[in-house]
Every structure is written in structure tokens, then in C-alpha cells.
């Protein structure tokens, strides 16, 4: 039976042994009762003694038979052979001698066979690993043949009975010689441990003494009492050896259970490896690192997380299945380099020391013990990172695909950056992001970034609350035809007062809105506000367009088109009065879905404008394919000194290009008279900026329009 089940099944089975204690107590008292009984003869007393010492051992062996491998049948047969021997001594019959010698021969054979017949592969009954199992098998068969020959001769050949002492001595000598040979054989196997050999030799001597005294007794030279003494000593030593054997098996069972549990843990470790890289995964690595930190809080470790920054190209070209092969090659090269560094924390064996783990995505982890560092920590860490980077081959190939991997590293240090494992890992990942964003090889965690992060989180929370409470401030900036002093349109803008000092424009807080997850709600509020302005204008008889800025093509959702249609129906406003303004980058990088939604907006007669127009080939090709009604260029460079001639020349070219393409162009960010005059000289006509007009709140728009018309009556 498997040793591994000991902890579950064996406990229930041992309960039966406890219940048998009372019965065993009665059995143990049996020899005492026998010794005090006056009616017992000498032979009966010996039988009672044998029964008293053997029965508890035999019962215990029977109860443990399903837990340990021990040939309890041999013990029962040996005890029975002794009973038959004593019975033969008191039997008054013609075959008394044959019966006694048969029992004695069986006894000698069994006491020699018992150690040999034990299952050494499972229980290690002789205390050593049997390297000569085939030889032992031959010894067992030889003893069985000898006893069969002797018994046949004893019962069926008269000469053997006539020379009983000689026949028995010849048989016993042959069997004991086999036993002695096996004892010497086991001694050679375990030369450093003489325990097994000495026990077998003691048994051999006592068995030989019994055979010798019995032979002398048959010839009338020795007394019967010496035969009994030799037999009892031989049996007691055999029984003691059997008890030792049983206890060894039980102890081995307990050790085997622990060994199996350990093996199970190793198997569990292999199951927990990442299938793509054959490295330990995050949870296991974190637990080992946490245990190390718990043992010594003062010990300094460097948490190094690195990433192959250009591996995404492999996924795009080869797909995940094939890219995993390249990733496995990369992990193998890195692990080979890391395994030889004794200062790196070990996460397991496979078969060499595993000192690297895989985190989420393409991030890998090593933990550097700084205790043995002779130089400054940063110097040793930089050297480690450089060694890891150098371990990657200059070009890794899969079939015809080849790529040079570049590694980026992020580092945090325990003690300096904290003592919590999760925090150290997070800080190292933040440093890794810094390396990737700034295209560095190594970045160390900066504690000041925590303050920045907390500030950003506070900003997100504050902006989120202001968006939901509609606590943003809207204003309109007019777009004026400066040649004719005529209003071309209006652009809706928004201010967010993070503090009381200065309002923030949309471009300054849009990233905070995106990170807070409320940028789409902000866009819907902007559209709603635009339609309210259009409705107010139409009520007063003004039919100008209102522009709304979308910061990303990701805002082009089907729901957004439906929302605009709902606003058009609610306020009874046609789509031609609304202008959706998108940045040039968003237009060029628009997905097919976004382009389809732009087509839906055009179907509603909504105009599309491009802000930040650069005049590049890609943008011009897009203009040729898509119906764009406006382009906007940033004219801030016109307000600067004459040194910035290149930017001014570019703006001049864009103005001329738009005139050639007969595409309405709006110059934005015209902040002073110099810029406005330069823009006008270039041929620009539609202007927007602080120099044109700072802005108007929606509630005062009609008042401003009335004043504008009074100042420009001919241009109305």
C-alpha cells in the first residue's frame, strides 16, 4: 500500500489497534498465569512463554499489515513450528523423531528466509537498498529446495531416519551457510553500516547453536534443556529482530510520507511555472521574496523588473503562438545569465537554480541581494542590468524572422523605497514605465513621483466631481473674418478652475479627464452646451456655426452620433450649424470604425474641421479622400521674434496651400497685434485668438452680438 495515504487512512486503522489494548493486556498476562499454575509441565510452560511473547507482536503485525510491508506470515509459521517441535517432544509415537526434526528444519528455514523474503524495494527491510535482488531470489529458492529435499528424505528414506543427526546437521549446515553468505553479501553492500550485518550474524550464531545442540541431543550427548535454551534464545532474538524490522518500516513510512509530500511540492512547483518561459510566476516569487524580507528586515534588496520593449513587433508579425517560441529563447538566455549570479534571490530549481520570475505581460523580475556588494548599490545594480542586457544575443531568429531585443529596466530598493513587497514591485514597475517612456535603459524609482501620483489622483478626483456637478465654466471665442469685420463662427471652449489662481484650458486638463474616465461625459456636456448656444442664437435670429473639440478619435462612438441626433431633435437645430473639430493626429490614426462614424456625422450635414493642420502628405491625402470643411493652423509662432523664420515660412505656405485648395482656413492663437498683422499679410482672412476677442460667456453672447452689430452695421 502506498505510504502517501498514511495521514488519512492509517489513523482510522490505528484506532482499531487502540481498541485491542485490553485484549493484548490479557494475552500479555497469559505467561504469568501459566507460570503460577502448578499443573503446567516444563514443555507446557515453554509453549505458554512462546505464546505470551509472540502473540502481541503477531497481532500488532497483522493490524499493521495494510500500512507497512512485513511478512507477518513468517512469524506465525515460525511460532507454529516451535509449538509442533515441543508437541513432538511429548508425543509418544513411532514418528516422534520425524515430527520434531521436521518442525526444527522448518523453523531453521523460516528464520533464515524471513529477512530475505521482506520486500526491500518498498520497506527497506534489511536497512539497505538491495542491489543484488536477483541473488537474494536465488538464495530463497535454494533454501526452499533444501527443506523440500530434507523433508522428503526424512519421511520416506529410512537411511535418513537412521542417521537423523547427520542428515539434520547436513541440512542445517547448508541452510545456515546460505544465510551466512547473504549476510556477508549485505555487509559488502553497506560497508559503512554494520548494524544489519551484526544482527544477522547474531541470529546465525544462535540458529547454529540450536542446530548443534539438537544434533548432539539426538545422539544422546547433550541434554534436552540445552536444546530448549538454544531454541528460546534463537526465537527471542528472531522475534526482537522482527520487532525492529516492524518499527523500521513504520519509521520509514513516516519519512516516506514526508518525502512524498516534498515530491508533491516539487511537482506543484513545476505546475506553477509559466508555460511559455518555464519560469516561476509572480505569486510564487512574491511569496519567496516576502519570506526573505520577514527573516531580516535590515537586509537590502534591489527589485529589478525588466521588459523587452520591442517585443510587440514579434506579436504583430508572428502571432502569439510563434512569438512564445522567441520569448522562450529570450527567457532561456536571461535565466542562464541569472542562474550563475549567487547574489540573486533563488525562486527554485529546474534543474539549475532559477533566479528569475515572470510577471504580468512581458515583465520579468530578479531580486538582487545587496549584502555582498562592495561598491555603491547603484553601481552594482547597473552592472547587473548591463550583464542581463548583454546576455541577449545580438539577433534572435525564428525561421526567416529576426529581431534585436532591447531591454528596459526599472529598479526599487528595499529600505530606501519601502519594505512591503507589493510596494517595491509597484515602484519598480513605475520606474520601468519611466525607462520605456523616456527611452532609457535603467531608471530608479523616485519617491517624489509618489507625491506627483498623489497629486494626480487628487486632481482626477476633483475634476471628476466638477464634471458630475457640472461645475465647469463655458465660454465662446468668435472666429472673425478680419478683412470684412464679419463673424465667421464661434468655438465653444471650457475652463476648469482647479484653484482660484488661473483657469485651465481643455488642452491642459484633458489627460486628467481621460485618466479619470469621465472624458466622454465631458464631451456630451460640451455638445449639450453647444446646442443650447445654437438654440439661443436661433431664437435671436443669428445663424452662426459653433465648433466643438473632440480630443481623440476614441470619442467617436456610435452612442455619440445617437446623442447628437437626440440633441438635434430636442432643440430643432440642423446639423450644418455644428462643427466637430478633431486634431490632425486623431484624423490620421483613425480606425475604420472611427472613419465610418465620421461618415455618419457628414450624413447629418455636420462639418468636420482639422486642428493643428501641418500640410503633410498624409494629411493632404486624407483631405482628398474625406470631405473636410475647415482646417485650423496654430499661428502662435507669428508673435515671436524674427529668429523663428522657419515656422513663419511654414505658416505662410499653409495659408497659400489652403487658398489654392479653396479650403476655409482659420488661424488660431493670435495673441497680439504683430501676429494678427503678419497673418493678414500672408493672406489669412479668418482669425481667432485673444487679439481678436478673448471670449464671451454664453449668457452674454446675445449682448455681445448686439454690440458687434452696432459697431459694424454695414457688415451685419
UniProtKB/TrEMBL annotation:
Q: What is this protein called?
A: GGDEF domain-containing protein
> What CDD domains does the record tag this protein with?
EAL
Any one Gene Ontology molecular-function term assigned to this protein's record: cyclic-guanylate-specific phosphodiesterase activity
Q: Which InterPro entries match?
A: Cyclic-di-GMP_PDE-like (IPR050706), EAL_dom (IPR001633), EAL_sf (IPR035919), GGDEF_dom (IPR000160), Nucleotide_cyclase (IPR029787), Rev_trsase/Diguanyl_cyclase (IPR043128)
Cross-referenced PROSITE patterns, in alphabetical order?
A: EAL (PS50883), GGDEF (PS50887)
**Annotated ranges, domain EAL:** 456-709
Protein origin, superkingdom? Bacteria
Annotated ranges, domain GGDEF: 299-447
Residue spans crossing the bilayer: 21-41, 47-67, 74-91, 138-157, 163-184, 196-218, 224-247
UniProtKB keywords: Membrane, Transmembrane, Transmembrane helix
Q: Does the keyword Transmembrane helix apply?
A: yes
Amino acid at each position: 500500500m502506498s505510504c502517501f495515504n498514511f495521514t488519512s487512512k492509517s489513523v482510522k486503522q490505528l484506532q482499531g489497534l487502540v481498541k485491542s489494548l485490553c485484549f493484548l493486556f490479557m494475552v500479555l498476562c497469559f505467561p504469568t498465569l501459566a507460570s503460577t499454575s502448578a499443573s503446567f509441565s516444563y514443555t507446557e510452560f515453554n509453549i505458554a512463554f512462546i505464546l505470551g511473547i509472540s502473540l502481541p507482536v503477531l497481532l500488532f503485525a497483522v493490524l499493521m499489515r495494510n500500512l507497512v510491508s512485513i511478512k507477518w506470515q513468517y512469524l506465525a509459521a515460525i511460532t507454529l513450528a516451535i509449538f509442533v517441535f515441543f508437541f513432538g517432544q511429548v508425543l509418544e509415537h513411532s514418528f516422534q523423531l520425524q515430527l520434531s526434526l521436521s518442525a526444527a528444519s522448518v523453523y531453521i528455514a523460516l528464520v533464515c528466509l524471513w529477512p530475505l523474503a521482506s520486500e526491500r524495494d518498498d520497506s527497506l527491510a534489511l536497512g539497505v537498498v538491495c542491489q543484488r535482488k536477483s541473488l537474494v531470489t536465488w538464495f530463497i529458492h535454494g533454501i526452499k529446495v533444501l527443506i523440500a529435499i530434507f523433508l522428503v528424505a526424512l519421511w520416506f528414506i529410512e537411511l535418513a531416519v537412521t542417521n537423523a543427526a547427520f542428515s539434520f546437521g547436513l541440512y542445517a549446515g547448508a541452510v545456515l551457510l546460505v544465510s551466512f553468505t547473504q549476510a556477508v553479501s549485505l555487509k559488502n553492500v553497506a560497508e559503512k553500516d554494520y548494524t544489519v550485518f551484526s544482527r544477522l550474524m547474531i541470529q546465525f550464531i544462535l540458529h547454529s547453536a540450536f542446530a548443534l545442540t539438537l544434533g548432539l541431543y539426538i545422539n544422546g550427548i547433550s541434554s534436552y534443556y540445552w536444546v530448549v535454551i538454544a531454541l528460546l534464545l534463537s526465537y527471542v532474538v528472531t522475534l526482537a529482530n522482527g520487532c525492529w524490522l516492524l518499527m523500521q518500516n513504520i519509521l520509514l513510512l513516516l519519512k516516506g510520507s514526508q518525502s512524498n509530500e516534498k515530491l508533491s511540492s516539487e511537482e506543484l512547483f513545476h505546475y506553477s511555472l509559466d508555460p511559455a518561459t518555464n519560469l516561476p510566476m509572480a505569486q510564487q516569487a512574491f511569496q519567496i521574496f516576502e519570506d526573505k524580507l520577514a527573516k531580516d528586515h535590515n537586509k537590502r534588496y534591489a527589485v529589478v523588473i525588466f521588459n523587452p520593449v520591442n517585443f510587440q513587433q514579434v506579436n504583430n508579425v508572428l502571432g502569439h503562438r510563434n512569438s512564445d517560441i522567441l520569448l522562450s529563447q529570450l527567457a532561456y538566455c536571461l535565466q542562464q545569465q541569472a542562474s550563475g549570479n549567487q547574489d540573486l534571490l533563488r525562486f527554485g530549481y529546474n534543474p539549475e537554480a532559477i533566479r528569475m520570475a515572470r510577471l504580468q505581460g512581458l515583465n520579468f523580475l530578479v531580486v538582487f541581494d545587496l549584502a555582498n556588494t562592495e561598491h555603491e548599490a547603484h553601481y552594482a545594480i547597473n552592472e547587473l542590468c548591463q550583464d542581463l542586457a548583454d546576455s541577449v544575443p545580438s539577433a534572435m531568429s525564428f525561421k526567416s524572422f529576426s529581431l534585436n531585443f532591447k531591454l528596459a529596466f526599472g529598479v526599487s530598493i528595499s529600505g530606501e523605497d519601502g519594505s512591503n513587497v507589493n510596494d517595491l514591485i509597484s515602484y519598480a514597475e513605475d520606474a520601468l514605465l519611466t525607462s520605456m517612456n523616456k527611452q532609457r535603459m535603467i531608471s530608479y524609482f523616485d519617491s517624489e513621483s509618489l507625491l506627483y501620483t498623489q497629486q494626480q489622483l487628487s486632481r482626477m478626483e476633483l475634476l471628476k466631481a466638477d464634471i458630475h456637478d457640472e461645475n465647469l465654466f463655458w465660454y465662446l471665442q468668435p472666429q472673425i473674418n478680419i478683412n470684412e469685420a464679419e463673424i465667421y463662427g464661434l468655438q465653444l471652449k471650457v475652463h476648469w478652475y482647479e484653484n482660484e489662481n488661473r483657469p485651465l484650458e481643455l488642452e491642459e486638463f484633458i489627460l486628467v479627464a481621460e485618466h479619470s474616465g469621465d472624458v466622454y461625459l465631458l464631451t456630451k456636456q460640451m455638445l449639450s452646451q453647444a446646442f443650447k448656444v445654437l438654440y439661443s442664437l436661433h431664437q435671436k435670429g443669428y445663424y452662426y456655426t459653433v465648433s466643438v473639440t473632440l480630443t481623440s478619435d476614441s470619442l467617436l462612438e456610435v452612442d455619440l452620433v445617437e446623442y447628437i441626433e437626440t440633441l438635434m431633435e430636442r432643440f430643432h437645430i440642423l446639423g450644418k450649424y455644428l462643427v466637430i473639430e478633431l486634431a490632425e493626429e486623431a484624423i490620421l490614426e483613425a480606425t475604420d470604425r472611427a472613419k465610418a462614424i465620421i461618415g455618419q456625422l457628414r450624413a447629418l450635414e455636420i462639418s468636420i474641421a482639422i486642428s493643428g493642420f501641418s500640410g503633410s502628405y498624409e494629411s493632404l491625402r486624407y483631405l482628398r479622400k474625406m470631405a473636410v470643411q475647415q482646417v485650423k493652423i496654430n499661428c502662435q509662432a507669428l508673435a515671436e521674434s524674427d529668429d523663428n523664420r522657419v515656422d513663419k515660412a511654414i505658416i505662410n505656405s499653409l495659408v497659400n496651400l489652403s487658398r489654392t485648395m479653396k479650403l476655409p482656413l482659420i488661424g488660431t492663437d493670435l495673441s497680439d497685434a504683430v501676429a494678427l498683422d503678419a497673418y493678414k499679410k500672408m493672406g489669412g482672412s479668418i482669425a481667432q485668438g485673444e487679439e481678436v476677442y478673448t471670449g464671451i460667456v454664453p449668457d452674454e453672447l446675445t449682448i455681445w452680438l448686439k454690440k458687434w452689430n452696432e459697431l459694424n452695421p454695414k457688415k451685419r
